[in-house]
Amino acid sequence: MKTMKDIYDLLKQYGIYIYTRDRIGDLILMEDEIRELFKARVLDPKDFQTAMLIIRQETTRLEREGKIEN
């Protein structure tokens, strides 16, 4: 898992489709869903950590581009 597309594909495997037309809203929902999959012991710790890191990197990238405020 290296990109946001990989995370979308991972969530799709479990029947989770996220698209709200709000990039930040999508990231928040994706983070919540990844946490729930981890709590349910569906994701292993490595995949959980990698997914969370990618989501946070994307959030940081959007902040730097000025698309969101902290």
UniProtKB/TrEMBL annotation:
SUPFAM superfamilies noted in UniProt: YqgQ-like
Top-level division of the source organism's lineage: Bacteria
Any Pfam family: YqgQ-like
Annotated InterPro entries: YqgQ-like, YqgQ-like_sf
Name of this chain's protein: Uncharacterized protein YqgQ
